[in-house]
Amino acid sequence: MPIISDMTPPIIKAAAIALKEGHLVAFPTETVYGLGANAVDKKAVARIYQVKGRPKDHPLIVHISSIELLYKWARDIPEYAIELAKQYWPGAMTLVLPRTGLAKDFITGTQDTVAVRVPSHPLANKLLKEFEALGGFGVAAPSANRFGKVSATTARSVKEELEKYLTNNDQILDGGSSQIGIESTIIDCTKDLPVILRPGYITSEMVESFLSLNITEFDLTSNKIMAPGLLDAHYSPNAQVLLNGVPQPGDGFIALANIPTPIGTVRLASPKDNNEYARELYNALRLADNKGIKIVQVIPPMEQGVGVAIKNRLIKAAFIK
Ligand code: TXA
Ligand code: MG
Q: Could you give the percent of the chain with pLDDT greater than 70?
């Protein structure tokens, strides 16, 4: 399956048509690549689960081009959710809200809530607009990786991981490397106050200061599953990830650039700050597997800003099943 890189308007339109006809289109977003399907097409959505190897009760995020379409998918939207949407959309934030009849069980994993996001990547936005112009309401898109594995931040990674499960009618669109590099912040907006279910680039501090209130963050170290998908083990390469361990020669090594490479280890990433850390992390974990490395030693960044989300992903990547 070729990666489509030359993103002219006719090519984007053809991708929107493929979605409308029930095919899958992997597309870039600013967070990670998504594996898209028409969110009202039961058969197309079933293929997402099959291609990802994902359990059926794990709900999907519906992607739309603007806040206007939110009202098609969600009801009883609290004022704070509308404020958040106006402030952070398009962007790396997903809102969980009570669902309308449009959000069927096959999208929500039978829950009465639906997750919605307006991505900011220009190609994602154009694709969604074209799809909506064809009468589409939204594109369901999980991260474009096999279930439990590392999310893809380039079209090449999507191809390497999913090509054998895709057909010739499906497409992989290339929009370069994802700028943020880790998945969106998920905020539960079904209660009086917002609750962060998955930390991301939009931090709890940003949300708190914007809304001028204290919010709850899902306890990252707890073993409870508050929403399907918030599993202990996730984002895992084949290599074993170890945090703050004692690196041995031959191990892979990931740390901020100011931390020297331990003797004999294979440096997989040297990000200069937390934003670069987020952007490079998944590629570095994939690189470990491509190099046949068995153990990756990671020094997590300080838990500031997006560092909280990075630590969250690393704990899950390091979880021993
Ligand atoms: O950045 C992102 O969010 C990427 C890009 C492609 O948009 N998407 C993504 O999707 O990370 P996925 O399916 O890999 O992760 C979505 C998470 C899952 O853990 C799922 O359980 C949770 O969102 N989720 C979806 N709907 C939910 C709902 N109604 N209530 C609670 N959690 C939900
Ligand atoms: Mg995912």
A: 95
Going by C-alpha positions, the residue among 228, 281, 231 that lies closest to residue 255 is 281
Please count the other Cβ atoms lying within 10 Å of the Cβ belonging to residue 2: 9
The residue with tokens 């708190």 is 208
Q: Which residues of the chain have pLDDT under 50?
A: 221-229
| Verdict on whether the full-model pTM lies above 0.70 | yes
Ligand nearest the Cα of residue 128 is: 1
Structure tokens at 83: 């404020």
- Token pair, residue 301, equals 């960044």
Under 8 Å between Cβ of 279 and 235? no
Atom of ligand 1 nearest to the CA of 107: 26
- For domain 9-217, the CATH superfamily is DHBP synthase (3.90.870.10)
What residue segments make up the domains of the chain, in order of their start? 9-217, 240-318
> Has domain 240-318 been given CATH number 3.40.50.970?
no
Beta strands in 153-222 (DSSP E): 171-173, 185-188, 195-198, 216-217
Residues framing ligand 1 (Cβ under 6 A): 29, 31-32, 34, 58-61, 94, 96, 108, 111, 113-115, 117, 119, 141-143, 183-184, 186, 197, 227-230
- Residue 257 region, left (φ>0) first, then alpha (ψ -120 to 50), else beta? alpha
